[in-house]
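Morning!

This is the sequence you dropped in the shared folder:
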Amino acid sequence: NDTYGHETGDLVLRHVASALKSSLREHDRLIRYGGEEFLVFVSLRDTDPNGIMGVMERLRQNVASLSIPVGLIDLHPTLSIGLNFYTSHFKNEHDAIAVADKMLYEAKRSGRNKIASYHPSAAETAETKHFTVHHVKEAIEEKRLFCESQPIVVLKHQKIAG
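The structure's back. Tokens below.
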């Protein structure tokens, strides 16, 4: 948009979206997330990271093979991809997407036209467990979750034993 104008930017986006869409499988989903960013939701049928990486590499290559004529030149867009294989570790989809977005910027920083994926460290995994406990407490405070108990009564004494 900055270099060639919005009309050309829109043309490039249409070509890129078409290349992305044609690269995906029937059960995957493509969403334009904003500006020049797209989200790809890969079906849970594919739990193998190598299979998902194959899909992402196909996306990257199909976009890289584009040649979009604009006036006297051809534009050759590239695709930087940020992946989050660990979406179940997050409280909600916004947090999971934020991590994929961080990986996208990591791919751009490392030279563009790259794929960067998130892998939680042991420290992050421990932090995620703490994060989950925090959210359970939050849910209790907001009355989205409640606790009940069933006392164990010693009938002989009619006293609660536990």
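Headline: Residues 153 and 160 are 4 Å apart (CA to CA).

More detail when I'm at my desk.
O.
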